[in-house]
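Lecture notes, part 5. Sequence design as translation. It can be helpful to think of inverse folding as translation between two languages: the language of shapes and the language of residues. The source text, in C-alpha cells, appears below.
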C-alpha cells in the first residue's frame, strides 16, 4: 500500500497486522529415547528416600533436575543398603511431571515379587518411624 508524503514521493508502508518481533530461532530437538534404563546404587535408606519418595505398590515419585516427558517408559534397577543389600527392580511409565518438587510421577507397569516385598518392608519401616 503506497502513501504520498508532502514531496509527492510514494512511501511504502507495512500492513497493519505485520509482526515486528524478531524472527524465532528454532533449536534443534534432541531426540530422547522412549525407553530408558535407570541403574542406581544407594548406600543408605535415607539417600534412597531422598531421591525416590512417595513409593507404593503402584508407583513412586522420583526427583530429577531434568524429568523425562509423560509417556516415557523406564526400567529401574535400584540397589539399596537397608539391612542387607537389596535390589528393587521394576518397569514403569512417567505419568506426571512436576516443577515443585522437580521430578516425575511414575506408575509401575511391572514389579518383581522381591521388589513388592521390599516396598512392603520400606512402607512398614516408615509407618513405624512416623509413630
Amino acid at each position: 500500500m503506497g502513501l504520498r508524503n508532502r514531496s509527492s514521493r510514494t512511501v511504502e508502508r507495512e500492513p497493519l497486522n505485520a509482526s515486528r518481533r524478531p524472527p524465532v530461532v528454532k533449536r534443534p530437538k534432541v531426540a530422547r529415547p522412549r525407553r530408558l534404563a535407570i541403574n542406581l546404587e544407594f548406600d543408605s535408606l535415607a539417600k534412597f528416600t531422598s531421591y525416590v519418595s512417595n513409593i507404593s505398590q503402584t508407583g513412586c515419585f522420583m526427583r530429577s533436575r531434568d524429568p523425562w516427558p509423560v509417556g516415557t517408559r523406564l526400567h529401574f534397577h535400584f540397589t539399596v543398603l537397608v539391612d542387607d543389600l537389596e535390589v528393587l527392580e521394576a518397569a514403569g511409565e512417567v505419568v506426571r511431571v512436576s516443577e515443585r518438587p522437580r521430578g516425575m510421577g511414575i506408575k509401575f507397569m511391572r514389579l518383581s515379587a522381591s521388589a513388592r516385598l521390599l516396598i512392603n518392608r520400606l512402607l512398614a519401616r516408615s509407618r513405624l518411624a512416623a509413630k
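The translated text above is only one of many valid answers, since several sequences can fold into similar shapes. Strands lie at 2-4, 10-12, 35-42, 52-53, 59-63, 73-81, 85-99, 102-111.
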